[in-house]
Specification:
The chain is of the alpha+beta class. It has helices at residues 5-24, 28-44, 46-53, 59-70, 76-87, 94-107, 126-140, 172-182, and strands at residues 114-120, 145-151, 159-162, 167-169. The longest helix has 20 residues, at 5-24.
Amino acid sequence: MAVGPLRKKISNPYARALYNVAVKQCILNETTEDVYKLYHFLLAEPLVWLYLQNPFDTKEEKKLVLKQILNNQVGEYTWKFLMVLIDRDRIFLVQEIIYCYLELVLMSEWAPVKRIGVSTATELTETQLLKLTKKLEKLTRTKNIFLVPKVDPTLIAGFVLETHKKKIDFSMNYRLKHLANHLGYSLEL
């Protein structure tokens, strides 16, 4: 998900506040786990996401829906944070806040989440991101993977996965160059 500059400017202080509380209370791993659950939940349940964005539903209704859905699945501080977002009419930014929070965590020295960049020729849908995340979790035997999507039209088709150590290229661009090299031709795409 790409975060626009204005939304990021609004979301970043909220993400930083949650991060700072988590560090101060020594619950960074638990809070990150909560945020990660919320991230996957919103990807898997787009109707809930749409409901939270609806300005015509009251704050109390949104709190009640979240309470019924989450049902004590997140920690106390994460729950209070979500209530603050509802009270301040910022719950519509929850996905951007999650993204900014996870960026902060990933840049910290205590990163409990594995960050994987995925470059594609076109933007991936939420369903595709969720399926790719689940597959990568299964392959890497890690349950905390955060995909950072990026669009790169030069790839033609396919995708490229990047971590801080490795780059795995499944793009059509790479395959065509590899085939041309094998046939003894130089190919510039």
